[in-house]
Design brief:
By secondary structure, the protein is an alpha/beta fold. Helix content is about 50%, strand content about 10%. The protein has a five-stranded parallel sheet. Helix 3 runs antiparallel to helix 4. The mean pLDDT is about 90.
Length: about 130
């Protein structure tokens, strides 16, 4: 099972090399898991700007995910990760969702906050070169 951070999902709908690379990763992922906060993070901008095509692609993508709500167990785990790794609230919730629900991997491009110091789950970055790295 694979869990995803918002950044890679935003890239996935881009009509360029980075989008193609992320779409490949999404295609390879069997079960897709995420926090229901992905709805807010991914849909807010296209709704504000009226980017109907982007909104449609993101909504369709999110419909393939098992989105989990933040219950007490998840919030407790997020609090622990926030303290331990100095994560922002939303990042801690995404990580906690992945760990609590048993994901094997957490996909993100946030290398600053999700580096090798995270030990509870395998952190996966987009393919080198896909994002101009």
């Amino acid at each position: 099972m694979d869990a995803f951070d918002a950044d890679v999902l935003i890239y996935s709908v881009a009509d360029d090399e980075r989008g193609a690379a992320i779409r490949g990763t999404l295609f390879e992922a069997g079960e897709r898991l995420g926090s229901n906060l992905l709805l807010l993070e991914l849909l807010m901008k296209p709704m504000r700007t009226g980017a109907a095509a982007e909104l449609e692609r993101l909504t369709e993508l999110l419909s393939t995910f098992d989105l989990k709500s933040a219950d007490d167990e998840l919030v407790d785990a997020a609090l622990g990760f926030s303290v331990k790794y100095r994560l922002k609230t939303v990042d801690a919730i995404h990580l906690a969702t992945a760990v609590v629900w048993g994901a094997d991997r957490f996909h993100t491009n946030n290398r600053k906050d999700f580096g090798p110091h995270i030990t509870e789950i395998e952190i996966v970055y987009p393919p080198v070169g896909a994002l101009g790295i």
